[in-house]
Amino acid sequence: MRHSLVAVGVTITLASAAVAQTSIERFERQLDQIYRDTRLRANPEVPAGQRLLLDYGGFLGLSFFAIDDVQQKTHILRQYDLIGYARLNLDNAHELFLRARTSYRDFNSGDSFDGEGDETIWPTVEQAYYRFDLARHLAASRGQLTRNNVVFQGGRQFVYWANGLVLGQTLDAVRVDLTIDRFELQLLGGVTIDRTIDFDTSRPDFDDDTNRGFYGALAAVRLGRHRPFVYGLIQRDYNDDDAVAIGPVEAKSEYNSFYIGAGINGSIGDRLLYGVEAVYEGGEGRSDVRFDPLTQTLQGQSEEDIQAAALNFRLDYLLADQRRSRLTGELILATGDSDRLVSNSTLGGNAPGTKDHSFNAMGLLNTGLAFAPSVSNVTVFRVGGSTFPLPTSASFSRLQVGADVLLFGKMKSDGAIDEPTSDDWYLGVEPDIFLNWQVTSDVTVAVRYGVFFPGTAIEFDDSPRHFFFAGVTLAF
Length: 476
Hints:
Blueprint lengths: L1 H40 L10 E17 L5 E17 L3 E14 L11 E15 H9 L6 E12 L7 E13 L2 E10 L19 E10 L4 E12 L5 E4 L2 E4 L2 E14 L3 E15 L3 E3 L4 E3 L3 E16 L7 E9 L43 E10 L11 E11 L16 E15 L2 E12 L10 E11 L1
Antiparallel strand pairs: 1-2, 1-22, 2-3, 3-4, 4-5, 5-6, 6-7, 7-8, 8-9, 9-12, 10-11, 12-13, 13-16, 14-15, 16-17, 17-18, 18-19, 19-20, 20-21, 21-22
C-alpha cells in the first residue's frame, strides 16, 4: 500500500508541476496578444502605385505590466522593445520585408514567471519574407488586368489561418494563394520558430524551443458579400523526443493532430459583419503516466486517438456614426476531457486507454486579459464595443476607447482546463477596458485593464485577478 501512495503522490506532483508551468504559457500568451495588437497599430504600409519604394525605420516601445497569476501573486514587469524594419517594393508586385526586435524584460525582484529574473531577448528576426503578386506584376509590366491571380509569400511570416481558431502564429513558411474568378485556394507549409510558446507545457523547453509543422489547404468561394470556406490542416510534432523520468517510467511528449474545418465570413447589409468557423480535431497523442491500482505500479504511456472539436462565432455591428462606433459579440466553444488533470499538456493529460477529447491548437482568439484561458474545454461569451469619442477634436480625434465583458464556463463540467478546477461549470466573469490614442504620427499610447472575478469552479483562490498594461510606441 505504501508503494501505491508514493506512485499516486508522484503523479499528483507532476500534474501540479504541469499546472505551474502553464502560468508561463499564459503570461507569454497575454503579452503576445498585447504585442500583436499594439504592433499592428504602428505597422507601416506601402503606398500603392509606387514604381520602386525603399522604406525603413523603427519603433521604440516602452511598456508597463502588472499581472496577477493563479496564486494571486502580482508580477510587475517593465519591458523595452526596439524594433527595426526595412521594406523594398517594386511595382507593388515584388516585396521584400524584414523586421527585427530586441527586448529587455525588467521584473521586480522575484516576479519573473520562470524564476530566472530579468531577461534580455537579443535581436530576433520577427519577419523576413519575399512576396510576389502576379496580377499586379502583369498590370505594371503589360497593362493587363485579370481576375485570376497567384500570390506567393515565402519566409518568416505571421500566418492567420481561416478565422484564427486553429492557427495564428509566426512560421517559417511558404504560402501560395490562387484565385480563379470567384474561387480561391490557399496552400500552406511551415514550421514554428524557436521562441514559440508551446501548448504542451509539460514538454521540456516548451517556452523557448518549439518545433511544430503545419501543412494545409483552404478552399473558398466568393458569393456576393459572403465567403464560405473549407480546409484541412495537418500539425506534426517535430520537437526533440526528450523524456521525463517518473520513477521507473519515462514520459515523452508527442502530439500529432489534424484539423478539418468549415466556415463563412461576410456581411449582411452595410453594417453587420459576421464570421463563423467550426473544426473537428483528430490525430494521436501520448497519454499521461498514471497509477494502476490493479498492478500497484505506474502505468506507462500509450498512443491514444484524439477526437475533439471547437467553434467560433463573431458578429460586428457598425453604427456608421461620426465616432466610428462598433458593437461586437463573440462565442467560443472547445471540447474537453473528463479524465484529464490538465487540458493542454501530456503530464496530467489524457488517461491511458481512453480517447482524448480535449481540443488543442495554436490559434489566436480573444479570451480576455486577466484570465486568458487556453481554448480547450471552455465556453467563452464576449460582448463589447468601441468608439472614437472626440472625432472633431484636434488633439483627440484619433483617441479610441472600448470595453468587453467576458463570461467563462467549461464545456465539460468535470473536465480540466489549464488550472485546477472543481466539477462546476462556472469559471467566472471579466470586464476589460482599453484605450488607443495616436497622439501624433510618431507617438501611440495604449492602455489595457482587465479584472477577472472567479466563479464556483476556480479552486485556488476566489479573489479577483487584475491585469494592467500601459505602453508608449515612438516611431522614427
